[in-house]
Amino acid sequence: MKLIKAEVVTIGDEILYGQITDTNTQFISAELDKIGIRTSRKISIGDNREDILQMLEDSTGRADIVLITGGLGPTKDDITKKTIADFTEDSLERREAAMEALRAIFNKFGKELTEINKKQADLPTKCTYLFNAVGTAPGMWFEHNGSIIVSMPGVPYEMKYLMQNEVIPRLMKAFERPVILHRIIRTAGIGESWLATKIESWEDQLPEHIKLAYLPNLSQVRLRLTGTGSDEQTLKAEIDKEVEKLYPLIAEHIHGEGEEELELTIAKLLLAEKATLATAESCTGGFLAHSITSNSGSSEYFLGTVVSYSNQAKIDLLSVKEETLEAYGAVSEQTVIEMAEGARKALKSTFAISTSGIAGPSGGSEEKPVGTIWIAIAGPDKTVTQLITSTKDRINNIKYGSKVALNLLRKVILNEI
């Protein structure tokens, strides 16, 4: 079965200038993926006639479907509609159905339908009118030289309405589509290159129709298996079989699947053990507690945090010894051990995490450069520590340190260390 390819295009100078964030292409690609259509390119161009014409020429030569958002307003800078009409050697005509929709919207809000607004009902004669129930700019569907071109407003909620109610149903009728399935395996505590080395032989034997992608981010790597086929049940069984082979190779690094973040994995483990958690944070400044409490129901297992940023707070609130701070400093294995054990005792939790480091960009030394972070996990039977070194980016260090700390806790709960 032929793989249907789509290109998704945003039109608007405001996107190129960085004045607004493009969320449209992400939504469109996800919707296409659900029905077995692969997005092969995403393109952003400005409100320029020559650029739009060149894009249309190139994209229709490569793709079965070209989905465009933006440039459909009634003002002079919105040129998409006229440019597509020129590309398809067409002219504009006023559509009564589009006019009726405009009148209904303006009547609903008690506003006058001006001449400039009426231009929204002027559409190319060759296009199929797509009714927009939530805005004034209609969508347009063209069939040109073997490709389908769809033009939609750039306003996200209007685009979403048209995609879900007009475009997707029409695409499903227009094409016989293959099944595309994804399965995501989430790993932590291992870098992308090391992970690739561990699973190289397994990856090399994957069937041609099942592809693997590495998606790394902050001490975590997601492995995405994407399969393409004609039968959903058969394809799912094939992917499941490959995942069964993968698990024994990297079991200690897998913490979940799909959209399950590390914080949710920790929640499940704590709830299963009927255990509780506290945190004692210095360099992460409460971000770790924020990450943990981002999950609904976290009050069942998370007891609280102490953000002991100063040495005095470490002494007063966590019972860290002055001698420890004087001898080893705040950023040290000895200090994080006392912080974690002090938090566990103060908050009466099963486990406690502590962090202390140099987030940066200033404050580092030759002995302890920016990005040096000590982590400790105190539990009923033992306290374990980990030293990590990261970048000079403050926010990245805070986020990275928090993720590593959570993964260390995961390993402690599972008795892997």
From TrEMBL:
InterPro entries named among the record's database cross-references: CinA, CinA-like_C, CinA_C, CinA_KH, Competence-induced_CinA, MoaB/Mog-like_dom_sf, MoaB/Mog_dom
Coiled coil: none
SMART domains named among the record's database cross-references: MoCF_biosynth (SM00852)
Species the sequence originates in: Jiulongibacter sediminis
Superkingdom field: Bacteria
Entry's family note: Belongs to the CinA family.
Matching SUPFAM superfamilies: CinA-like (SSF142433), Molybdenum cofactor biosynthesis proteins (SSF53218)
Membrane-spanning intervals of the chain: none
Residues covered by the MoaB/Mog domain: 7-174
Protein name: CinA-like protein
